Amino acid sequence: MASAETAAEHERILREIESTDTNCIGPTLRSVYDGQEHGLFMDKLEGRIRNHDREIEKMCNHHFQGFVDSITELLKVRGEAQKLKGQVTETNQKLQNDGKELLTSMDELRQCRLQQRNIATTIDKLTHCLPVLEMYSKLQEQMRAKRYYPALRTLEQLEESCLPQAGSYRFCAIMAENIPRLRTQIRDVSMSDLKDFLESIRKHSDKIGETAMKQAQVQIARDNAVTSQQRSVSGRRIRKEVCSGTEVDRTGSNPFSEKDSGILDVEDEEEDEIPGAQDLVDFSPVYRCLHIYTVLGARDTFENYYRKQRRKQARLVLQPHSNMHETLEGYRRYFNQIVGFFVVEDHILHTTQGLVNRAYVEELWELALSKTIAALRTHSSYCTDPDLILDLKNLIVLFADTLQGYGFPVNQLFDMLLEMRDQYGEILLKKWNQSFRQILDQDNYSPIPVATPEEYQRIAGQFPFQDPELDKMLFPKKLPFSEFVPKVYSQLKEFIYACLKYSEDLHLSSTEIDDMIRKSTNLLLTRTLSHCLQYAIKKKNVGLAELVQIIINTTHLEQSCHYLEEFISNITNVPPDTINATKLYGTSTFKDARHAAEEEIYTNLNQKIDQFLQLADYDWTAAQGGGQASDYLSDLIAFLCSTFAVFTHLPGKVAQTACMSACKHLSTSLLQLLLEADVRQVSMGALQQFNVDVKECERFARAGPVPGFQGDTLLLAFIDLRQLLDLFTQWDWSTYLADYGRPTCKYLRVNPHTALALLEKMKDTSRKNNMFAQFRKNERDKQKLIDTVVKQLRNLIATNQA
Question: Left if phi > 0, otherwise alpha if psi is -120 to 50, otherwise beta: which for 262?
Answer without folding.
Answer: left
